[in-house]
Design brief:
globular; oxidoreductase; oxidoreductase activity; Sc_DH/Rdtase_CS; NAD(P)-bd_dom_sf
């Protein structure tokens, strides 16, 4: 349960080795979160992430549970959610898994394009529905969904990824509306270009940000029960302009 100071006591991180997700987890355990469930594919990397969180919690202790989670194995998603909630209530659940993919390859290789959309959108829906049900059943909690400004108006340079994020954003926003009055809060996070391992091979974009900055915004968004945040916040204004540019103008922008 959220304590009297407004701090969550437990966290479920789907995408347990995500740089943004772990930055969020570090901030929570550095405060008063004392139970974390890390769900992901690589058991060695998950154990390392658990050690990182233990260090962030010191001198207090944190209980870290590791669960196997594969975004592409949709038949296992409901069971993963059940196991995550078996240890007690989940105050914050964060959907942080995803892939960037290779745009040029996706334009030639349908299998690659479908994999990007499956991981970034379909899998999030597949795990998001049972997750929302579990949160609704316990009557409280925050569901945080990592979307992207790429989904607000997909660009030529990454339209497969942008299309997947557009679908995810619409789903998460609608889910937040569906859960109103249940005690469950949904936060949709729209970062710009984040400097991570996933984007290390790309040139930095204007208004680029860091996992730590995104994490700080997420923690504040959960505390204040925001519905949507942009990181950095100025992107809200930027995207408001870009969304309404004529297509002929938009396609010529160097972004």
């Amino acid at each position: 349960m959220i304590n009297a100071l407004g701090s969550p006591q437990s966290l479920l991180l789907l995408g347990g080795t995500s740089e943004i997700g772990l930055a969020v987890a570090e901030r929570f355990v550095g405060d008063r979160t004392r139970r974390v469930v890390l769900a992901g594919r690589d058991p060695v990397a998950l154990r390392s992430a658990g050690e990182r969180l233990a260090a962030a919690a010191a001198p207090a202790s944190v209980e870290v549970t590791v669960l196997e989670f594969d975004a592409l194995d949709r038949t296992s998603h409901a069971a993963v959610v059940d196991r995550a909630f078996a240890g007690g209530d989940v105050d914050v659940a964060l959907i942080a898994f995803g892939v960037l993919g290779e745009q040029e390859r996706a334009e030639r290789d349908a299998e690659h394009a479908v994999e990007v959309v499956t991981v970034d959108f379909t899998a999030a829906v597949s795990v998001g529905v049972p997750l929302a049900q579990a949160l609704r059943a316990q009557g409280h909690g925050s569901l945080v969904v990592l979307s992207s400004v790429a989904g607000e108006r997909p660009r030529r340079s990454n339209f497969v990824y942008g299309a997947a994020k557009a679908g995810l954003d619409a789903f998460a926003t609608g889910l937040g509306d569906a859960l109103r009055g249940s005690g469950v809060h949904v936060l949709v996070v729209r970062p710009g270009f984040v400097r991570t391992r996933m984007t290390a091979h790309l040139p930095a974009a204007p208004l680029s940000t860091t996992p730590e900055a995104v994490a700080t915004a997420i923690v504040a968004g959960v505390r204040w029960r925001k519905e949507t945040i942009w990181v950095p916040s100025v992107l809200r204004l930027v995207m408001s302009v870009l969304r309404h540019l004529p297509r002929a103008v938009f396609r010529r922008l160097p972004i």
